[in-house]
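re: that complex we talked abt at group meeting.

here r the seqs, copy pasted straight from the sheet so there may be weird spacing, ignore it
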Amino acid sequence: MNRRESLKAIGLSAASAALLQGCKEETVKKENAAEPVKAETGRQAFEVERNNQLKAQTFFTDHEMKTITVLADMIIPADDKSGSASDAKVPEFIEFIVKDIPEHQVPMRGGLRWIDMQCLNRYGKTFRESDSNQQLELVNEIAFPLKAKPEMKAGVAFFNRMRDLTASGFFTTEMGFKDLGYVGNVANKWQGVPKDVLAQYGFADDKI
Amino acid sequence: MTWTAEKIKITITGYFIFPTFSFLSLIIFLKNFISVMGDLQIKKSATVYDAVIVGSGAGGGMAGYVLANAGLKVLMLEAGPFFDPKKDSLQLKWPWESPRRGAGSTRAFGDFDAAYGGWTLDGEPYTTKDETDFQWFRSRMLGGKTNHWGRISLRMGPDDFKSHHIDGLTEDWPISYDDIKPFYDKVDRLIGIYGTVEGLPNEPDGIFLPPPKPKLNELFIKKGAEKAGVKVIAGRGSVLTEALPGNKDRGACFYCGQCSRSCKVYGDFSASSCLVIPAIKTGNLTVIPNAMAREVITGKDGLAKAVSYVSKDDMQEYQVQGKVIILGASACESARILLNSKSAIHSGGLANSSGVVGKYLHDSTGMGMGGFLPQLLDRKRYNEDGLGSLHIYSPWWLDNKKLDFPRGYHIEFGGGMGMPSYGFGRGIQNMNGLVPDKNGNKKEAGGFGLSLKDDYRRFFGTRVGMAGRGTAIAYESNYCEIDPDTVDKYGIPVLRFHYKWSDAEIKQAKHMQETFTEILHNMGAIMTSKTQGPETNYGLEAPGRIIHEVGTVRMGDDPKKSALNKYCQAHDCKNLFVADAAPFVQQGDKNATWTILALSMRTAEYIVEQRGKFNI
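got the structure back, here u go
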C-alpha cells in the first residue's frame, strides 16, 4: 500500500490525501543546528535571520557546558527505555534556548556559579570536578524544594529551571517521543477513545 | 493598474500583483524609485475599483469574497505578507524541526503557530494611559487572526443582539437575531461548522457537520461538570469533520489537532484559504500585500475616494481609489484609520461626528484553571490529537437574576496526550509530590534521575484545563484614541488605550474560579492553579488578552450615538463601510468570528444591492 492509499484507508477524503501527499514529502528535513539556513517556506525573513544569528553566537563557556551536561544527565539518565539527556543533545538545546529566551541567561549562569561555589567551599573543587558522591550530595540538597534548607533556596530555583529545560530538551526529540510513546502528528481519523480504555475508566456504558 | 507620479509611470498587469510581477519589472520598478528618492511623492493609481477593502481577515475576506463573486472589481490591501496555508503552514512539523522546540520566542503562540505578528510589533507601538493594561494582538498577514484562532464558531443569540431588557446595562443592536440568522446559515454552508442541535434559547443551532467524539479527559470533565450542574455539549467549530458538500477545493480534517498552524488541506476556516484565495480565482479580486493603510481620503463632497497606504516592500506612498471603501482592518485598527482620516468636513475623523469612534471597546473576559487527573497516571497510549478546536464546551447555564454579576460566560475545555513541545514537563515539582509513586509510597516533590524520568512518562496526558470566556459590558469609558505624541515607524499616529474592568467582569471571574474549582474537584483532579483573590481580580485576564476586542465603530439607528447604520454603512459617509468586529454594539460571551463573517456578508450583499439601485 503506498502512502496515498494508506491515507485513504484510514478514512481520509481523496482531496485531503492528495493534498497531504503533495506537501509532506518536501517538508521532512532535519534541523541542522550548525548550518545557516537561507530561507524557509512559511518563515518570515527576520525569523530565519534571527535563528542564524543565535546559532552563530556562543553563550556558555566550555566549563559551563560541561557542568550542564553533568547536571542534565543526572536529571535524565539513560535507562532500558531510552538514552540520557546528553544522548538526546539536551546541552546543545539549552545553549540555544538561553540565547533565544534571554531571561534564562542570568539565572543559568549565576546558578552554575552558585553550585560551583558551594562545591569549592565544601570539597575544594568545582561541581564538575567533584566526585560523583559529592555531586550527588549537593544535588540532593537542591532537587527537593519542600525539604531543602532555607539557605539552599537559590540552588533549588536554579535546579527547578535546569530540570524544566532538561525535560523540554529531552522530550521534544525523536528519542523523547519514542520514550514517551507519543504516537500522534500523523494523518488519522479520530473516532473517540478506544473501547478498552473506555472500559478501563468506567465509561463503557456511557452514551458518548 | 496604472500608477502615476511626477517622474515615473509604471504599469502592472494581472489581478494579483506580486506573484505575476516579473523579475524584470521589479528591477525597473525599484530603479525608478531609487531615481526619485529624496523627493518622496505619493503614487496615485488611475484605476478606480468598485471597492477597496482594507484587511484580509474574517471581515475583509468575506466582503472580498461576496463582492468579487458578484462581479465587482475589488482591491484588497493587507498590511502583512501573502500567506497560503497550503504552502506556508508549518503543520505536521515535529518539535525538533524548530531549534527552540516550538517555544514562542518570535511567535506568541509558539514557533509553528501560523500567526505572524503578536502582542508587540517592531516599529508599530501602541500606548496606554491611566495605568491601563490593555494588550493588543495584531496579525499582519493574509487572513489576519483567522490563521491561528481556535476555530470556535458560536452564533450570538437573540438575547445578545437585544440585551437591554435583561438589566438595562447594555444597549441593543439595531438588528435582531432574526435579521442576521439567514447570514449565519449561509456562512455555515459556505465555510462548514460542526456541532449538535440542542435547541437552547440563546445558543442558536447552526447547520452542522458531525462533531468530534470527546477525548478521555473530556469524559471526566463532562462527569465533573454535570455533577456541578454545568451542562456540557459538543463543541462548535469551523473544521470539516466531513467533506463540505459542494466544495472540491477543501479537504476534510485529518485530525492532527493543529488548526492553529493553519491547515494545508484547507480543512478548517482561515480567511485566506476559504475566502480570499477563492475570491482571487474569480479574477475580480486583487490583493496588495505589505500595504499598511494610513487613512481614507475623502473628497469635497465628503465621500470616500481613496485609501492612502505605505508599502512595506519599498517604503513608498500610494493611493488607490474605490467607489466604495470597506474597512476590515480589525476593530482597533479600523478605528485608528478612521480617527486618522481627518478632513475639513470630517474634522474629528471620518465617520465620527458622533464622537463614538474608538469608544465602547470591549474584549471577552477570560479566566483559566487547570490540574491533573491522578487516575490517568500511566495511561495507555494512542493517538489522541483529535481536532484543533473544541471537542466539548459548556454554554452559559445560569440565570443572572439569581447571581451578583449581570452577564454570563461559556467554558472551553481541554487536555490529553497532545504533542510535547517546549515547556513539556515544566513545574513537575509542583505535581509529582502530590501523588504516591508506582508502589504506593509517598514521594518527595521534585527530584532527579530514573524515578523523575519515569514521572514524566507517568504524568503524560493527565492534564486538564478549562477557561471561561464571558460577556464584558461595552462602556463608553473604555476606549482607544489617537495618541497625540506618538507615531509608528511609518509616521502614522498610534492608538492609546484606556480600559478598566468593572465589577460586572470581576465578579464574573470570581464565579468562574468557583465553578472551575468545583468541576476539577468533582472529577477527582488535583488542582495546580492557585486560587486567586481580589488583588488579581480572581485571575481575570487583562483586557485584550482574549483577542475578542470589538465595539470601536459601533452601529446604531441614531447617528448621534453611533458611527454606522444597521448595514455597517457610515452615517456620515455613505460609501464607507466597516466589516470587522468594530461595528459590534455589545458582544455576548460568544467568540466574535462567526458574527464578523455573517455581518460582513450581510454588509457586502447590501453594497451589491445598493449599487444596483445606484445609491452608492
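couple things i noticed - Confidence is low (pLDDT under 50) at residues 6-36 of chain B. The first strand of chain B starts at residue 2 and ends at 4.
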